[in-house]
Design goal:
five-stranded mixed sheet; Heat Shock Protein 90; single chain; five-stranded antiparallel sheet; 8 helices; alpha+beta
Length: 407
């Protein structure tokens, strides 16, 4: 239970942190991208308005920008009304007439006032004035490199931040759940010790009752009913103590089950056979024709037998007379699916998950037999075997479904 709380805390915490970090680093990446775009656009605007920087050493198209060069490789040209191309200025770039003609043709064909020439890794901006169409062009490999670097750094920082927050979340989960864990361990220890202490006087009471019954001839016959009642109540109390002791051991991580390959088909059939007499007394039919043969699972034969008996006892206890209990055992891929359904009074949907709570009974008057521990023990057994149990209302029938890994 404590481990489930810790895992849930870590998952929720990491999910919130993931969303926050994703938003923050996305904003940073978008901001870096926009800054680079604005820087290039500002340069293009300056070039179009004749505010060019002083000429720098030449830059060959296709070459990477040298570290000793200052400024962005750029050039400006004008296309007159007659189609003549005139190179007005250039910075850190060498360009042939042929490349200039090809680029100008592509730029003039575009309906947009700005765009990108991917082939040359250039960005351009154009405007029309009295001299013709003026075009400013800058090299953007440096801009792309800066954007790429910013994205890589952001991803690395994002991953490192997640790992750091994961470590912090694990530490905090251990810190927060430490008092809960101590309380839970104390409760489990108390339950285990109390159950052990109660078993001894109960055994004495039952032994004394048995002695009295064996020597009943020397006792007034009017006292028989008190002896019988004492024995019945003592047996009920002993069963309650045994159930509490089982749950206490299940809660303790130091009591693992001994796994072995067992036949679930034989276990279910044997349990159904042992409950036939109980069903006969209430005129309830136990149907076993849908139990498949040779289905094996890894687990404890004793605990799986107890699980089946609990579900069958529960079904017979709450079934109306002259109805049937249907048992089905099949396989689904690598899972064994054991289901049991019976007719009963309809239960509200919100009550169904609570059926597995300890001491919970759908009958609020608590007039029935038992203490509401049977289904919680069944769920504990299934959890210990790595399985899952669900309950649902199908019309007037309630259906319990158990899924266990196949051996």
């Amino acid at each position: 239970m404590i481990n489930k709380v810790k895992i849930k805390f870590i998952l929720i915490n990491m999910m919130l942190i993931f969303i926050v970090l994703l938003v923050v680093f996305s904003i940073l990446c978008i901001s870096s991208y926009q800054n680079e775009i604005d820087r290039v656009n500002n340069t293009l605007s300056m070039l179009l308005n004749d505010r060019q920087e002083q000429s720098k050493p030449p830059f060959h198209l296709g070459d990477s920008l040298q570290e000793n060069l200052i400024g962005i490789p750029a050039f400006v040209f004008i296309v007159s009304d007659t189609g003549k191309i005139q190179l007005v200025s250039k910075t850190n770039v060498l360009i042939s007439d042929n490349d200039l003609a090809i680029m100008s043709a592509v730029i003039l064909a575009s309906k947009n006032n700005d765009g990108v020439l991917r082939k040359y890794k250039l960005k351009y901006m154009k405007k029309t004035d009295v001299t013709g169409i003026k075009v400013a062009v800058v090299e953007i490999s440096d801009m792309e490199r800066n954007i790429r670097t910013a994205i890589i750094l952001s991803i690395c920082a994002f991953v490192i931040s997640l790992l750091v927050f994961l470590i912090i979340s694990i530490f905090l989960s251990n810190w927060f759940t430490r008092p809960i864990k101590q309380t839970w361990e104390q409760q489990t220890l108390f339950l285990s010790d109390a159950s052990h202490e109660l078993k001894t006087p109960l055994s004495v009471i039952l032994a004394n009752t048995e002695i009295l019954k064996n020597n009943i001839s020397s006792i007034d016959s009017s006292l028989w009913r008190w002896i019988d009642n004492t024995e019945i109540e003592s047996k009920k109390m002993k069963k309650l103590v045994d159930d509490l002791l089982f749950l206490s051991k299940s809660d303790s991580s130091s009591s693992p089950i001994e796994h072995s390959r067992v036949s679930l088909s034989d276990i279910v059939l044997s349990a159904a056979l042992s409950f036939e007499s109980v069903g006969f007394e209430k005129n309830i039919t136990i149907r076993t024709d849908k139990i498949s043969e040779s289905i094996y699972v890894n687990g404890s034969e004793f605990e799986l037998s107890r699980l089946t008996q609990i579900l069958l006892d529960n079904a017979l206890k709450y079934s109306a007379e002259a109805t049937s209990v249907e048992i089905e055992l099949t396989t689904n891929q690598s899972k064994a699916v054991f289901s049991l359904s019976n007719a009963c009074n309809s239960l509200p949907k919100e009550q169904l998950p609570r059926l597995f709570d300890r001491f919970y009974r759908g009958d609020s008057s608590h007039s029935g037999d038992g203490y509401g521990l049977g289904l919680s023990i069944a769920k504990s057994i299934i959890d210990r075997h790595g399985g899952k149990i669900t309950v649902e209302m199908i019309g007037d029938n309630i259906r319990f479904t158990v899924v266990l890994p196949i051996s």
